[in-house]
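Question thread 4412

I'm putting together a teaching handout and wanted feedback from people who do this every day. The idea is simple: show students a protein as raw sequence, then show them the structure tokens that encode its fold, then repeat with a second protein so they can compare. Below is the first pair exactly as I plan to print it.
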Amino acid sequence: MIVDVLRLAALALLVAGGQAMAQQVLAVSEESMPLQYTSHGTIVGPAADLVRETLRRADLPFEVRLYPWPRAYAMAQIEPNVLIFSIARNDDREQQFKWVGEVYPAEFRFIKLKSRTDIVIKSLDDARKYSIGVINKDITHEFLAKRDFSLGQLDITANNDINFKKLVAGRLDLVLRSKRALDMLCLRDKAMCDKLETSYVVKEMKMSLWMAFSKNTPDDIVARARTSYNAVRADGSWNTIMLPLSH
């Protein structure tokens, strides 16, 4: 009898442990200073802090990791219980994820060398004449591909740094990136920044960055995170967490 009771208790612990592991959330994104980045071996930044606060209040066990964007994006499309953050929300992605809450608004622009006075862009179609650096599987890549910009015209790389280096080296005509990415480049490398300027703000790309769960994440986990996120917004914590981005 005692043995049976002990066996049942052990089984209950195993089930409970399995359920806890099943509810473990893996929060993923890319290195993108200042939103989320690695400093001295620790993932920091307002977006990462917002995700942590949201999941902590939802009482969901979690881990935050940063990967190259194509890998993070693929994980969020395939695996359960994956929360991808700082992802641009648009019509094409609307049904691919379970959206939780906004991280930060984004504005995108074509960036060129100041010395390239021959490059003049007054509309999106004007950019079709030039080579453009974008990040693989990123919103910039998807946006231009959907609008039939040719593969030969798009230079698809893994991150912002590669694109900006190619631009300064004269191997690209333009880079399509957010204003925040350009601002952070200027903080890190003033010499490079002084060589660059905005050529055209892409009005068609005005959108927000969000956090979102993979489609096969259980609805109860998503609901808990949404409720928690709404509380973070309601009590003013979102403003406090994201304050560094307003400077």
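The second pair follows. I'd like the answer to focus on this one:
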Amino acid sequence: MKTKQRLLIGVALSTLCLVTTSTLTSAQDTLLFMRGNSTYVNPVDAPGFSVQSEDLDGLAVDPSTEAGPGFDPFVTTDTSALMANDTDTAYLYTAASRFDTPGCADNWLEFGPISIPDGGARLWWTYRGALPPMGSGGDGYEIRVSNTGMDNYNDFVGQALFTKQDDIYGGNPSWYNKTALIDGFWENKQVYIAFHHTTCDMFRVDLDDILLVEETSVGVEENAINATVKQNFPNPFSNQTVVQYAIQESAPVTFIIRDVTGKEISRTNEGTKNAGNHFINVNANTLHLQDGIYFYELRVGEHRSTHRMVVAR
């Protein structure tokens, strides 16, 4: 039987989504963040925002997948065998492709509308092809964008924004960071985003930490702070990365790292730096950074510039 589960802001359906606007205030370019059983939506879009999960295949899911119909909001414990490698949260969206009888999944996780600014917005998320008990899996999926609504095949037409192919050699219990840019035609429009799962006779895909941020840097434009701050390199990184910046005149410099909720992870007083090029080394192990998305902020005098970096081991 085909099913649809929809949530409007402030209306609780199971644990699918609870929208708040009291977090992430320090990440000024955050448009949307979905993690755990809560979701941040920027105040402009929050009144009309909704999330829905649709199961269009109508097939009965094999109980071994521990998933329900569509993109099921799945809650478990960090200590379970299934989630042993998930140090981040005990909550995720999951969709299955193993059924009581052979068949192909047709599952949708859809949400919006979200306003895409001039210059575009970058979508980040984590996924894994969960391992089944018998050792094969690695479900693929695609991401689609619409500006007309979120009625699956009627609205999400045209070329996919992102496609992850099935892994026929087996799933991987590790989480991976992925990103895609929503720009061009979608700029200055309200859009809807869909994760579409169509794998046949494999196992399951898990999604978490869905983040949408402006493609431009947070805060004051760089030429206004008499500084040029480059994107850290490498990015993503597993252990060490370098942030390079140049200032045009002597000024005190402070370097701050925050997670996506705005929580401050570290703050370093770099002292007063002379005009010229400078480097800051970031060590994920020393700072005890888990895999995920972070924001680093460089303060030069009274001005600041913020960029994103990703830890992925």
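Top answer:
Good format. For the second protein you could add a caption like this: The two ends are 40 Å apart (CA to CA). The first strand starts at residue 3 and ends at 8.
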